[in-house]
Design goal:
The strands form 2 sheets. This protein has an 8-stranded mixed β-sheet with strand order 4-6-5-10-11-9-7-8. A 3-stranded mixed β-sheet has the order 1-3-2. Helix 8 links the parallel strand 7 and strand 8. It starts with 5 loop residues before the first helix and ends in an 11-residue tail after the last helix. By secondary structure, it is an alpha/beta fold. Bound molecules: glutamine. Glutamine binds next to loops.
Length: 486
């Protein structure tokens, strides 16, 4: 039962072959038995209350396709009932008085919340090792990182601890953990999904999206998640869409752009092999490969690591010991209280970003760093528009290597940043991007580690990405593979 897709579970629920309560209990047991550290907060009573309400709706006949389906939320979305920590000591005991819009939408559809998923502190990281609640283990190889910052979301789906999860992507945090854990995830176009109640990291980049086993499941989740929200000033006003509408469209004649810069010397050969094999598969499906160039790819790292910290330093100023969360217990005056609260409440990486952000925004450096980065950001977006004149979608690796060993890069923040090379530019441009499983690399001593294929589309072309991903998943089974002990 735990290996079934959302689509399959929905049929079982609607035909009364299983109840929402049975399903919730089944996943709660699996979560309790897991040693992956994927969850930060579980509350069985609340989960079972939602499951009972879902069963009532199913019995009354006013259920949606998602009623009774269990879902777990990245602990960056605020939730009434479950704690909302953002993986930080600062918010370790924080309870939100309201639900994020995304959570509200899933609740309204009758989904059943399983709990909150571990993540890097304030979503800053690529390995989930920056969480105050400890790292998450990769279910394929417990000595490997699950990727980040949505490590809990990807690990939970891979280990079949939940059939659906929310995640957020600021510079790769949906696509990269999905790739490292062999699951499917989509980062929608910036503005598609409401940021209201998503604890802010870098507001011009942050975007929520789903992680699940299949592209079709992601489409079903996105159908609920996407939509205009007057409470988010950057939410786009567009009519709602059915993202499953093009699932079965033929790929005959599809032009796939293959960026030269994504296949350079930094790319590990096992990742390259798996990605090239996937491209071959697409050729068999009728697509043609087009050699393209995204010349500013390398600049995405310095640009992102100026803009994201700048926005973070501003967003995180609200954590002052007065308004939310942690407050130092001993201090001499107000200024001392601020300092001690922030010194105690934030972890090392978050402090590093606040320092960098405050520096690049400061008088005298603003023009040299922040303004310059904004200008190059514009050029990066232009690169993509030039490329989309030659192709319908772009494909390449999600990350230069498979998941690395836990602890491998913890002393070297720059090594972590460099590993984001293939995901940052999509985020800077605000484009939709996806990761789907396409094979395995060498990785650790005994265990295989998954490889993801990245699919990037033009603005608001999510239905196309899902079509392209679904067609591949109809002729391959990488997305159905699961770690040995699950
Ligand atoms: N790894 C990137 C960072 O550390 C991206 C994180 C994200 O997308 N939330 O900022």
């Amino acid at each position: 039962m735990h290996t079934k897709t959302i689509k399959q579970l929905s049929v079982l629920l609607h035909t009364k072959q299983i109840s929402a309560t049975e399903l919730a209990n089944l996943f709660l047991r699996r979560m309790q038995q897991s040693d992956l550290n994927a969850f930060t907060h579980i509350d069985e009573t609340l989960t079972l209350q939602q499951a009972a309400a879902a069963d009532k709706r199913l019995a009354q006949g006013d259920a949606t396709a998602l009623t009774g389906i269990p879902i777990a939320h990245k602990d960056i979305f605020v939730t009434r009932g479950w704690r909302s920590t953002a993986g930080s000591k600062m918010l370790a005991n924080y309870s939100s008085p309201f639900d994020a819009t995304v959570v509200e939408q899933f609740n309204a559809a009758g989904m059943v919340t399983l709990g909150k998923l571990n993540c890097d502190e304030f979503a800053m990281g690529s390995s989930n090792e920056n969480s105050f609640f400890g790292p998450v283990k990769n279910p394929w190889d417990k000595s490997a990182v699950p990727g980040g910052s949505s490590g809990g979301s990807a690990a939970a789906i891979a280990a079949r601890l939940a059939p659906a999860a929310t995640a957020t992507d600021t510079g790769g945090s949906i696509r990269q953990p999905a790739s490292f854990c062999g699951v499917t995830g989509i980062k929608p176009t910036y503005g598609r999904v409401s940021r209201f109640g998503m604890i802010a990291f870098a507001s011009s980049l942050d975007q929520g999206g789903p992680i699940a086993k299949t592209a079709e499941d992601c489409a079903l989740l996105l159908n609920e998640m996407a939509g205009f929200d007057p409470r988010d000033s950057t939410s786009v006003e567009r009519d709602s869409e059915d993202f499953t509408r093009d699932l079965n469209g033929s790929l005959q004649g599809l032009k796939i752009g293959v960026p030269r810069e994504y296949f350079g010397p930094g790319l590990a050969s096992d990742v390259e092999q798996a990605v090239r094999a996937a491209l071959n598969e697409y050729e068999k499906l009728g697509a043609t490969l087009v050699d393209i160039s995204l010349p500013k790819t390398e600049l995405s790292i310095p640009v992102y690591y100026v803009i994201a910290p700048a926005e973070a330093s501003s967003n995180l100023s609200r954590f002052d010991g007065v308004r939310y969360g942690h407050r130092a217990s001993e201090y001499t005056d107000l200024s001392d209280m601020y300092k001690k609260t922030r010194a105690e409440g934030f972890g090392e990486e978050v402090k590093r970003r606040i320092l960098v952000g405050a520096y690049v925004l400061s008088h005298g450096y603003y023009d040299a760093y922040y303004l310059q980065a904004q200008k190059i950001r514009r050029l990066i977006a232009q690169d993509f528009q030039d490329a989309f004149r030659q192709c319908d979608v772009i494909m390449g690796p999600v990350a230069p290597t498979v998941a690395w060993d836990l602890g491998d890069k913890t002393d070297d923040p720059v090594a972590n940043y460099l590993a984001d090379i293939f995901t940052l530019s999509t985020s800077l441009a605000g484009l939709p991007g996806m990761s789907i499983p396409c094979g395995f690399g060498q990785g650790g001593k005994n265990a295989k580690r998954p490889v993801g294929l990245q699919i990037i589309g033009n603005y608001f072309n999510e239905a196309k990405l899902i079509n392209v991903a679904h067609q591949y998943q109809s002729v391959t089974d990488w997305h159905l593979r699961q770690p040995a002990d699950t």
